[in-house]
Amino acid sequence: MSNHAWILLGLYLAILLAVVKPLGVYIAKVMESRGIALRWGQRAESWLYRLCGIHQDEEMGWLKYAFAILLFNVLGVLAVYTLQRLQQGLPLNPQGMVNLSPDSSFNTAISFATNTNWQGYAGESTMSYLVQMLGLTVQNFFSAATGIVVIIALIRGFARHTAKTIGNAWVDITRATIYILLPISFVFAIFLVSQGVIQNFDGYKDVTTLEVTKYDNPKLDAAGQPIKDDKGNPVTEPANTQVQTLAMGPVASQEAIKMLGTNGGGFFNANSAHPYENPTPLANFVQMLSIFLIPGALCLTFGRMVGDMRQGWAVLAAMTLMFIVMAVVAMHYEQQGNPLLNKLGVDMSAGNLEGKETRFGIADSGLFATITTLASCGAVNAMHDSFMPLGGFVLLWDMMLGEVVFGGVGSGLYGMLVFAVMAVFIAGLMIGRTPEYLGKKIEAFEIKMVSIAILVTPLLVLACTAVAVMTADGIAGIANPAAHGFSEILYAFTSSANNNGSAFAGLSTNTPFYNVMTAIAMWFGRFGVIVPVLAMAGALAAKKRIAVTAGTMPTHGPMFITLLIGTVFLVGALNYVPALALGPVIEHLKLFAVP
Fold it and tell me: Can you say how many angstroms the Cα of residue 520 is from the centroid of all Cα atoms in its chain?
């Protein structure tokens, strides 16, 4: 690790940890119906509820809450699918983008509704401005709001006792969108515009590039004879004229919620490596901060709502420690360089620069890649396919942990709390005592829901990967043979089922086979976890609170943090080690094999 890498990581953590507490307290006040923000927007909020026929004071049991969440997201899928299928005849389409195929429309609709933002297409050559704004950007807000309200419902399950309800899903979604996501995104979008991110409705522009350097070709007339000026000198024309089409569009508004909502879907195919999405090192740094901002703040929201801030700090500490390890390993291996290129005489002292933007370099690219794969974001500022084998291993491993190290907005914390319940259950087995967490007994029903939530994602990843490598349609998409090709397929389904959305690249996924398979992985990877989490929230809310005794295990100290980290790593290792051995591990061993 270079000095720059250490300074970058330290500065990032210092700023992040300084801002998460005030934001976490603010989110708690909003979701608890308190604070100045609600008083300012109460009139508009009440009008919206009347328009939609929502009874603001009527709360829901977990089953009704889950049904509302599912219905809301199904409607989102239908809206995005319809817009894509009709985009050719809709306004704000200056480039005349044609309608998308049914399988691509289906995949994209599922992708943005599930906060995955997996993209099998190039945005600037596929989607009109209207579809980007009304379809994709709107779902960026709503999918992030879905994650927030699910974790709030789970927190209420811990905070309440002998209660039959966990909140009102429609009210929670409205408040998460209006008071949390919209105002922060508005400010962030203005900052991005100040850095050079574009925001317009112009048509695409054809420009002559700087490659016009020579003017030595004689200009010819209709008869093919050289044209001369008044002095008899031949008239010349550029020899290297290059015309490039520059895509325009409302980018900053989508970029802001793409990062804050841990969505990751880029306006452009190059995503955050594109200078119109991520133009400067400062923009890159703030984008990295924005990815972890709300997931980190929600840890303190958790502590505030359960009445013990130490609980929130303990979860945040576990996440931060795991993040540091992953970031250090990823940046370390990218700075080692490729031994094969070194043997060819290429100077690798600067590290593995393949697939990275020179304006960011290795440290900023490695840190960004670690953050985006841990946070269920999927935005990329470098090509993950070009990372060293163990660098790519870290990115895969980040997602395989369950996207719980900060993770997606809301989804990271409810995934981590699922592991926390598992951790206290394991501790209870060790000491022969009924496990408890935050004053609630953890019994058979909760463990069943925890088991489903933990196992559904690896089941989807491994099953879909197995199907892909055994079928002709799956193998047809591989551009790189052997272990790396397997890694590409494994990465694709790991990213889809964990609702990350990043890709190794090199795998042709915009085919009916991959569009359908990844859509299945995305949908069940999202709601196969949400439903058992909400069921657990309902069961916990109905329980009585147990008094703390001398035998109660503290869940806010170093011992619990260590147990929680061990549980996360152990479950990840047991599920994925064989698959990882067939991909990045064997690739690393072959690359560094003794000749």
Answer: 18
pLDDT of residue 306: 94
Mean pLDDT, the chain, rounded, equals 89
Q: How far apart are CA 12 and CA 435, in angstroms?
A: 37
205: helix, coil or strand? strand
Token code pair at residue 147: 């994650």
Question: Of 38, 42, 17, which is closest to residue 28 (Cα–Cα)?
Answer: 38
d(CA 162, CA 168) in angstroms, rounded, equals 17
Burial of 32 from C-beta contacts in 10 A (0-12 / 13-18 / 19+) = middle
Q: CA-CA distance, 51 to 42, in Å (whole number)?
A: 14
**Which pLDDT does position 412 carry in this prediction?**
93
Q: Indicate the length of the chain as a whole number.
A: 595
> 3-class secondary structure for 306-336?
CCCHHHHHHHHHHHHHHHHHHHHHHHHHHCC
Proportion of the chain above pLDDT 70, given as a percent: 97
* Angle CA 150–155–158, to nearest 5: 135
C-alpha dist (Å) from residue 478 to 281, 451, 482, 514, 579: 34, 33, 10, 12, 17
pLDDT score of 593 more than 80: no
CA atoms within 13 A of residue 326's CA, in its CB half-sphere: 30
Q: Which residue has the higher pLDDT, 98 or 384?
A: 98
Tokens, residue 158 = 């811990």
pLDDT value for 431: 78
pTM: 0.90
pLDDT of residue 217: 67
Residue 3: C-alpha distances to residues 9, 16, 336 (Å):
10, 20, 15
Integer Rg of the chain from CA: 26
Which of helix, strand or coil describes residue 206? strand
Q: What is the DSSP letter of 167?
A: B
Angle, alpha carbons 312-314-317 (nearest 5°): 110
φ/ψ of residue 478, rounded to 5: -80, 125
Give 307's contacts (C-beta < 8 A, 6+ positions apart): 159
Mean pLDDT of 470-479: 88
Residue position matching structure tokens 């972890």? 292
pLDDT of residue 408: 92
pLDDT, tens digit (0-9, with 9 covering 90-100), for 488-528? 899 899 999 999 988 887 788 889 999 999 999 999 999 99
In this structure, which amino acid lies at residue 47? W
* CA atoms lying within 13 Å on the CB side of residue 424: 24
End-to-end CA distance of the chain: 27
DSSP letters of 80-105? HHHHHHHGGGSSS-TT-PPPPPHHHH
Which residue in 568, 350, 369, 583 sits closest to 469, CA to CA? Answer: 583
| Cα distances (angstroms) measured from residue 101 to each of 81, 128, 238 | 10, 15, 41
